[in-house]
């Protein structure tokens, strides 16, 4: 008879703060500080810098323990605060030089394709201070850190012939922008969060404003906008975009520069400047709580998340730390109560050793005969039930938190 091998501890439910584990750090070549932003695409990280020659650095992160630089693009002594890869193209803001576009089909050999001059007339003084951007479909949205028309929309369906569609003044210091559906969400610093109706690209308009005093960064997912407000994280309900409302908040000790939401783990990563990285559990949007932190030696300006790690733009360097693993729940969609039925899981797939599992109240799950089950951790809520059948294996990398019922149907149990 096959043994049930349970590699875990039974523990009572508890609340704890996790200090994330250091993986590696990387100092970009010829950059005297100023690493302020990064974007991950596949095995590469694209890092914006604001010091030295203001390079855009392309870094191979296929092995997070040993990242290395593969290419560098000069910013011609102009700051770069944001970047995004779409298909074979890299878009990055370059302040006075507008938005630069490169072909990165071979990341080690980026080639210039086009640029977008975002000049705007402010009282007779032409300014072009492209700060934040977002590409959505055939359109490029630019937050222009200047007076004049400082939120702009461009048609990029023909990358060689980019067409200006419209622009409006929304208040000085437009910083970062995210776009969901027919609305753009702009972190407009002392002018709050601007929600802009972009359904008609040639006639955009401000649909609503949410003003907590200052908004430095924004990341939007589903019905929520996650804001870094200088003093912390605010979660805004945008289910009705024209009527945004506060859902929950978490005050941070430093200057919350930017925020990145990770839907896999339901965590918000707040770059808290001199206080490093704060990882906030936002699975319950009305009551976010601190999950973990990493106190860096520099000033964390932005955090990107990918492949189980978080990448801190920490001014002098890029720091790689472990990221919380995603959590999935058992929902028994098929009705058979079996662990190895993919449709029974919120993710649509059977758990791996890299996920945490939750069995909620009212759910009954069985690791059936001859099933080999794995997970990182399992939490059985009050009213939930987990049964492990004979001739089956359940192997956990971490702990089993049991507040419900766990039944081991075996003649030989090994802990």
Q: What keyword list fits this structure?
A:
single chain, 415 residues, mainly beta, five-stranded mixed β-sheet, globular, disordered N terminus
Would you summarize the structure shown here?
46% of the residues are buried. The model is unreliable at 1-18 (pLDDT under 50). It contains no helices and 43 strands.
| Structural class by sheet pairing and helices | mainly beta
Largest sheet: 5 strands, parallel
Low-pLDDT windows of residues: 1-18
Compute the CA-based radius of gyration: 24 Å
Please give the number of β-strands.
43
Q: Helical proportion?
A: under 10%
Strand order of the largest sheet: 2-41-38-35-34
**Which shape, going by the Cα principal axes?**
globular
- In percent, how much strand structure appears in the residues? over 45%
Distance between the termini: 16 Å
Q: What is the arithmetic mean of pLDDT?
A: 89
- The number of helices is 0
Q: Can you tell me about this structure?
A:
With 415 residues, the protein is mainly beta. 0% of the residues lie in helices and 50% in strands. It contains no helices and 43 strands. The chain has a five-stranded parallel sheet with strand order 2-41-38-35-34, with no helix packed on it. Strand 5 (35-41) and strand 6 (44-49) form a beta hairpin. It starts with a strand and ends with a strand. Mean pLDDT is 89; it is low at 1-18.
